Amino acid sequence: MRILAEDHKKVTDLFDEFERMKENEETDDEAKQVLVETACAELTIHAQVEEEIFYPAARDAIEDMDLLDEAEVEHASARQLITELAAMQPGDDLYDAKFTVLGEYVKHHIQEEEKELFPKIKKSELDLEELGREISERKLELRDEFGVSGEDEDDDDPDSGAGAKRRVH
After folding, report:
1. Does domain 2-146 have CATH number 3.30.1300.10?
2. Fewer Cβ atoms within 10 Å of its own Cβ: the N or the C terminal residue of the chain?
3. Straight-line distance from the first to the last Cα atom of the chain, in angstroms, rounded to the nearest whole number
4. Alpha helices, DSSP H only, in the chain?
5. 121, 124, 104, 123: which is closest to 4 by C-alpha?
6. Cβ–Cβ < 8 Å for 74, 105
C-alpha cells in the first residue's frame, strides 16, 4: 500500500501547487494546464490500478463492502470531472473551480482510504508485498500506454519529462 500512499502524496502536492498558482497572478495558463493534465493523468492511472487490482483484492480480504462501494463511486465522480477538464482550457469558466472541487473530492477519498481502508487491509491476511508488485507492474504498463513520463522524473516539476504535456484523459 506504500505505492498507493506515494500516489496520494504526489497528487495532493499537485493540488496544493494549483492553489498556489491561482493566488499568483503571474502564473500563465500553459503552466496551469500542464499541472492539471499531469494531475489528471496521475489520478487516472492510480484509479485504474485501484479498480483493477487493489479493490478486488480488498473485497476478498475485508468485510466492509460499503467502504469499497463508496470508494468506487468517488472514483466515478472524479473521472467525470477529469473528463470535463480534458475538454476545457485554463481560461474557460469554471476551469479552476472544477479542478479545485476535484482536489477536494480526491483529498476526502485519500483520507478515507488511509484512515479506514488501509488499516483494515493491513490487519487482513492479504499478501501486501505481492499486491504491491502487481500494482507497480500495472502502473508501469499504464504509464507507457498513456505516454506519461516515468515515476523517476522530477516530481516537483510537472513540466519535466517528454510525456508530461501530452493529454491523457
Report:
1. no
2. C
3. 25
4. 2-23, 29-49, 55-61, 65-86, 95-112, 118-123, 128-146
5. 121
6. yes
Q: Is the pLDDT of residue 162 over 80?
A: no
Burial class (CB in 10 A: 0-12, 13-18, 19+), 96: middle
Is the pLDDT higher at 109 or at 158?
109
Residue 165 has pLDDT above 80, yes or no: no
| Amino acid, single-letter form, for residue 98 | K
Integer Cα distance of 122 and 58 in angstroms: 10
CA of residue 4 relative to chain centroid, distance: 9
Instruction: Answer yes or no: are the C-beta atoms of 128 and 119 closer than 8 Å.
Output: no
pLDDT of 150 = 65
Q: Which of 55, 52, 79 is nearest to 139 (CA)?
A: 52
Domain range annotation of the chain: 2-146
